[in-house]
Design goal:
There is one protein chain. It contains 21 helices and twelve strands. The chain is of the alpha+beta class. α8 crosses α9, α8 (about 165-180) packs across α14 (about 285-320) and α12 (about 235-260) packs across α14. This is Cytochrome P450.
């Protein structure tokens, strides 16, 4: 290798730059913080272990340093809170999940109306417009799921291998019905827009967060830079919604004006939005249309992606456990006969074995750490440790969901009747199940999501025998500390009459 004195300045500058970054990024902890787990690689810290060995790494850290503890990943200190301390994080306003997710899921950079005020309105809308009307929406949900099953799975006289791509569309159809109404949700390209929105937004985040080692906000600016120059994979979905929604909004405004008190409101979120004094209008201009479409897609992001993942995973759990098939199937047959094929909320509530199975599938989904919260002001835990302002706190989900005190000496075992035996429904949040968060940060749409999963599984189990290709439970996919459903596909075959 050729070497000259001219190369010396280059090496010197590289070393200086490395030292400056190291000095700037070196963790500086305040008093009374959780203990910092030592690391060997400057700047990189624990990032490699966190990405490629999260389960063992975090388990060893907790065993040695207790709960909570600090690790250094992607250029910043994260506090890992397990089953002992995480409940304090979820029950106080000192922590913000929205603020924490903006760096890793920068929806605010592509949807202008995405902010704290809008999110608060979205939460209120879900509670009052969806959850409060669940009994009235059940029939429509069932109808749309049956359409989805027929379109996405269809006749399986011969065994058919079906991949996971059908589930976002299956979940999107009932959501579209509830959001924009029964009429325009019949358009398949609109259902497709709802189903693919979150996946296509994920394309913006395809670049690994390497710039987070400099600064998380800088990384967000870099990965969303293509959007500023015109590449926006979600723009087509917004255009699709606007295309169908504008004439519907104009029709409703005209009907209100003509019919007056005789106008019959629609039971959907569009109607709820238009009746909100803050969003009332007499004309559907581009600004109003943008606002309502972005509002609806915020709900889509919060609902379809997660619900479809868990419907997929729960069906894999069922398909891979033949010892449970008969018991759960018999319950569905009994309820189907009782309701003559037309489910009500009361009938869904009677699916106690299926509900318990779904809850256990949630628990064993195998996310290791997720649901980050940012500390918005210094907060002192009951154990005397202080979380400083600005700190990201990660929820150590595996420590909660596999807690031996709650689930016995073998907590990784799948207990299909745990919820049934302990009077715990799948939509209930408690200290031992954080699928939907907890306390002030609990998901407001969990009741609709659980009902949609249960109704979907109910109809599928009645119509098909569902198996995994291996005949056993399939392993989930891991990306860092986050789990995803298996990708083996599922084998569907018509049940013998």
């Amino acid at each position: 290798m050729h070497f000259s004195f001219a190369t010396i300045p280059t090496f010197v500058w590289v070393l200086i730059a490395f030292y400056v970054i190291y000095w700037i990024k070196k963790p500086r902890l305040s008093k009374n913080e959780p203990p910092m787990v030592p690391y060997k690689i400057p700047i990189i810290g624990h990032t490699i272990d966190y990405l490629f060995n999260a389960e063992n790494f975090l388990a060893e850290c907790k065993k040695k340093y207790g709960d909570p503890f600090n690790i250094y990943v992607f250029g910043q200190v994260n506090t890992i809170a397990g089953n002992v301390t995480v409940h304090e994080v979820f029950r106080t306003e000192a922590f913000s999940m929205l603020n924490a997710t903006e760096d890793i899921f920068p929806l605010h950079r592509v949807l202008k109306s995405y902010n704290l005020k809008t999110l608060a309105q979205v939460i209120k809308t879900i509670r009052e417009g969806i959850t409060a009307n669940l009994p009235l929406l059940t029939g429509r949900m069932q109808k749309q799921l049956l359409i989805s099953i027929d379109k996405e799975i269809g006749d399986c006289s011969n065994p058919k291998l079906v991949n996971n791509e059908i589930f976002p569309t299956m979940v999107a159809r009932p959501v579209a019905d509830v959001l924009v109404g029964q009429e325009i949700s019949k358009n398949e390209d609109l259902v497709k827009a709802f189903a693919e929105f979150t996946k296509d937004f994920g394309k913006i985040l395809a670049i690994p967060p390497i710039f987070s080692f400099i600064n998380p906000t800088f990384n967000t600016q870099v990965v969303t830079l293509p959007v500023r120059f015109g590449w926006n994979p979600i723009a087509k979905h917004l255009d699709t919604l606007k295309k169908y929604l504008k004439p519907e909004l104009e029709k409703r405004l005209k009907d209100k004006e003509v019919l007056g008190d005789k106008y019959e409101p629609h039971l959907d979120i569009v109607e709820y939005f238009m009746n909100n004094p803050e969003y009332e209008t007499k004309v559907i201009n581009d600004e109003y249309l943008d606002k309502i479409c972005e509002f609806l897609f915020i709900i889509v992001v919060a609902s379809i992606h997660t619900t479809s993942q868990h419907m997929t995973s729960t069906l894999y759990d069922f398909a891979g456990r033949p010892e449970l098939w008969d018991d759960i199937y018999e319950e569905q047959v009994m309820i189907d006969k009782e309701c003559n094929g037309e489910l009500s909320s009361q009938h869904i509530n009677k699916m106690v074995k299926l509900d318990s199975f779904v809850r256990e599938s949630f628990r064993t989904f195998d996310n290791i750490a997720s649901e980050p919260h940012r500390c918005m002001e210094p907060f002192t835990l009951k154990n005397g440790m202080t979380i400083p302002k600005g700190r990201i706190v990660q929820t150590y989900l595996m420590d909660i969901h596999y807690n031996p005190e709650a689930y016995g000496p073998e907590p990784r075992t799948f207990f299909p009747n745990h919820g049934l035996e302990n009077n715990l429904s799948a939509s209930r949040t408690d200290k031992n199940l954080f699928m939907f968060g907890s306390g002030r940060h609990a998901c407001p749409g969990r009741f609709f999501a659980v009902n949609e999963i249960k109704v979907g599984l109910h109809k599928i189990i009645l119509k098909y025998q569902v198996k995994t290709p291996s005949g056993k439970t399939e392993k989930k996919i891991r990306v860092g500390p986050v789990a995803y459903p298996p990708i083996a596909g599922l084998i569907f075959e018509n049940r013998k009459k």
